[in-house]
Specification:
By secondary structure, this protein is α/β, with parallel strands linked by helices. The chain has 21 helices and 10 strands. The chain folds into 3 domains: about 5-250, MetI-like fold, CATH 1.10.3720; about 255-350 and about 455-515, Periplasmic binding protein-like II (D-Maltodextrin-Binding Protein, domain 2); about 355-445, D-Maltodextrin-Binding Protein, domain 2. β6, α16 and β7 (about 410) form a beta-alpha-beta unit.
Length: about 525
């Protein structure tokens, strides 16, 4: 690989100011909030054994919750609170991105600060405290002038640990809409762009190491009573904050936020939309790697401006409606989106990306399986893999009900890995996507859904309520409507499955635009 000429490296560097700046911003805010809560709490409970044990126990329990789960839990909670705030006070707030990430990361930072503060204060020789009282110091004076200075090195060690934890965990905030260095990792995994994965991991590690070393300098200065070390460490942290935050604030205020879900096709389409906006002289910024429910709520709340969704996903999962014929479903969907959420359905792109049961062609032919009905009697001896959300979606329940499907084993995998797994025989069947070029790459076959258990999935462009009458946005996206057929999308997805400089979402989006304009 030619690292100098490979455009994926330059693409990664181009995104660094935005990703790094946002990562530092959310990490710094979360750490500051965590310190503001845990440090006073430690001072209050340090001499109260019952309260001290409760505080440490609760903080310890938080640490047992996986970081991604903790981040995800705050989104629906804040969404409900935002709705109540709007209903009761006439004003709401965004439950998307920054706020849930800060709150979750702040909780994650509390244990080391709380534990080290208590440990540091309890580790002071009682004779020193008695001596302070003996010279007439009050408890407050003793705490501020004697105890805290002696405990400060231990407290600083806790702050160092908390900072590293927060910086590392912040990479998981991408799925809830917070831009971070995790954008590299999530996008790279979904699109098999290992340059992005390596770049994101290296950048997060370098940031954590730099912050840890600067805080270590301050800690050493405190321990050795060296003002020079303390000042140098503080100046280093200040310089790091300024260097990373200033470029991230340079984004134009009228930037259009383009959303994308967590699979390759969505990254391609979001890049294509962003490129069309930029070609029209508009500023665009991607917000990628979002879950189905998160991205829709973000659009309705004007946290993102435009993205591509699928009619069946919205109708069955978001609205919980019964399946209807395509024409009626699309009409009813357009009306529901506008009347209930203020969302504009600009139009469809021209192709359908439906869930489908997929298996190796040769094995399907050997077993005489052409339809899902043919599969049903044999499913009990087979394993199936789906993406992270498939088995909790109504489509899966509908397939089980319509065909009486019951598989021996169900597994969840990253979408791109499913195809390689079924081709290698690691699983017998996958829940794939009809527009995915990997079906052809691995010589797989889509089983026919003769009972129409799965709804239509026309790819449609959605605009947020605040962009409903945006003529510039409409004009920029109009050339995409009805222009991308299933063959073009499959070819684009297959091209993105490569592992070279032409397979990045931006490069594939440019290729797709050139193809549909031949």
């Amino acid at each position: 690989m030619n690292f100098v000429s490979d455009p994926r490296w330059s693409d990664a560097l181009t995104r660094l100011p935005d990703y790094l700046g946002n990562h530092v911003r959310v990490s710094l805010t979360a750490l500051a909030l965590g310190l503001a809560i845990s440090f006073p709490l430690a001072l209050m409970v340090r001499r109260k054994p019952v309260l001290r044990d409760i505080a440490l126990g609760v903080a310890g329990i938080v640490q047992t919750v996986p970081g991604l789960a903790l981040l995800a839990l705050f989104y629906p909670l804040l969404l409900a609170l935002a709705g109540l705030s709007l209903q009761w006070f006439g004003t709401g707030f965004s439950a998307f991105g920054f706020l849930p990430a800060v709150l979750a990361l702040a909780l994650y930072s509390m244990l080391p600060v709380l534990r080290n503060t208590i440990t540091g204060l309890q580790g002071i020789d009682p004779a020193i405290i008695e001596a302070a009282e003996g010279v007439g110091m009050t408890q407050r004076q003793s705490l501020l002038m004697v105890e805290l200075p002696l405990a400060l090195p231990v407290i600083m060690a806790g702050i160092r640990t908390a900072a590293v934890w927060v910086i590392g965990t912040a990479t998981l905030s991408t799925p809830i809409g917070q831009t971070s260095l995790g954008n590299y990792i999530f996008a790279g995994l979904q699109t098999q762009n290992w340059v992005f994965v390596l770049f994101g991991c290296a950048a997060a590690a370098a940031l954590a190491l730099a912050v840890d070393q600067l805080l270590a300098l301050i800690e050493t200065g405190v321990r050795r009573h060296s003002r020079a070390r303390i000042v140098l460490g503080c100046l280093g942290i200040a310089a790091l904050i300024v260097a990373t935050l200033v470029p991230s604030f340079a984004r134009a205020k009228n930037t259009y936020i383009v959303g994308a879900k967590t699979f390759t096709e969505q990254y391609i389409l979001s890049s294509l939309i962003a490129q069309r906006l930029q070609a029209a002289g508009l500023s665009a910024s991607p917000r990628e790697g979002l879950g189905s429910a998160v991205i829709f709520e973000a659009l309705a709340a004007n946290d993102i401006d435009v993205y591509v969704d699928y009619s069946g996903t919205l109708w069955v999962n978001q609205f919980r409606r019964e399946i209807e014929p395509r024409a009626k479903l699309l009409d009813d969907l357009k009306t529901t989106l506008k009347e209930k959420y203020g969302i504009t359905q600009l139009g469809d792109l021209g192709f359908e990306n439906a869930y489908a049961l997929v298996m190796p062609r040769k094995r399907a032919e050997a077993l005489g399986i052409r339809t899902i009905a043919d599969l049903a009697p044999l499913a009990g001896s087979m394993s199936i893999a789906g993406d992270y959300e498939f088995f909790s979606r109504p489509e899966w329940a509908a397939l089980q009900k319509s065909y009486g499907l019951s598989f021996r084993q169900q597994r969840q995998m990253q979408p791109d890995f499913m195809y390689a797994a079924v081709a290698a025989g690691d699983v017998d069947m996958i829940a794939g996507y009809t527009s995915d070029g990997l079906i052809a790459k691995y010589d797989l076959v889509v089983l026919e859904d003769t009972k129409a258990a799965i709804p239509p999935y026309d790819a449609i462009v959605l605009l947020s309520p605040r962009r409903a009458d945006d003529a510039k946005l409409r004009d920029a996206l109009q050339p995409l409507l009805g222009r991308i057929d299933i063959a073009a999308m499959r070819a684009a997805n297959l091209r993105a499955a490569g592992n070279d400089s032409t397979s990045s979402p931006d490069a594939v989006a440019r290729w797709l635009w050139a193809r549909i304009n031949k």
